[in-house]
Amino acid sequence: MRNALTVAGVELRLFVRDRSNIFFVFIFPLLLVLMIGAQFGEGATTGRVAVSGSDSALSAGLVTGLESEDVEVSDPEWDAALEQLARGRLDVALRVDDEADAAYASGDEVRLTMVRASSPNAQVVEQQVRTAVAALQAGNGQVAALEAYGVPAGRAEAALAQARQEASAPVLEVTDIDELSEEFEGLGQFDLGASGQLLLFVFLATLSGSATLIKARRLGVVARMLAGPVSTTQVIAGQTLGRWALGFFQGGYLMLATSVLFGVSWGSLWLSLVVVALFALVASGAAILLGTLLENEGAAAALGIGLGLVLAALGGSMLPLELFPDTIRAVSHVTPHAWAYEAFAEIQRRGGGLLDVLPQLGVLAGMALLLLGLGALSLRRSLARAM
Q: Can you give the pTM of this predicted structure?
């Protein structure tokens, strides 16, 4: 066991010495989680609007109304707003000129200049802008109506504000929703992206070890280890343990970082770690097998990245499995990512326990045994040829 741990320690030191891993292991995954959560997660802004023009009651009212609907509002100059719109950084550009301010102050119909982007979400944001303008005009009309009956403007505005606070807002209760909505109910803004990126980078980080195995074979490092008091079984166990440690560390780090930085809920912590451990074991077997079948480090690195991305995409790490057609979703279960995805979904979304994810854990364990067996057999044969 000591020899196997020594071999594993060598693999870990080689990984740590590669400074490029600092970015790809510690920083890049978190950036992707942040990006996915900001764009698609629950709680993300529903649109981006630029309100250009002088500070006025109309502009302030529009900003307040839009921000209450979770719309991100900025106030650049009109030319700058059009440029941002052309670059796809805005959904709607809105110009509030002096004529619109005067019309709003006098209670007349307000006409604004609005330019909409070509993105699908821009149509929804445009309607939100129209709703905000209509709400402001309705409030203005209420004040004007009270003034017509002799109520001072200040008193009318105060009375309307008090009435809005005392009035009970209508309540919409949904009693029949589709299964897709139920699947994602209760997820935080970054929860879905965090689990998907964890699976993607655990697999990629572990597969990257196949290149170091090829290099060690090519330079005769493995042969020199076997010349000492180290058996073939110990070399195989050490190589596997080293790669598993890399994958498990990557997964544990992402779980901790996303929990602290983004408030991601992983459900049962120990059960989530069991999923990560088994998934990393599957990736370790794949790395050993890949590292013994290929003879070139560059080819192994390229194939590892390509294979990792394809399996991640097919297994739900880039697009939720619930959005897949039935046929493709069935095919996706040839990947370990799909089984780990379903295990995380059960733990995170539905508070599942060990019995709930036992089928997924069993399949991952079976995949790990199969790949580790094939990898160990291939490595043993390659070592026998080298000797």
A: 0.67
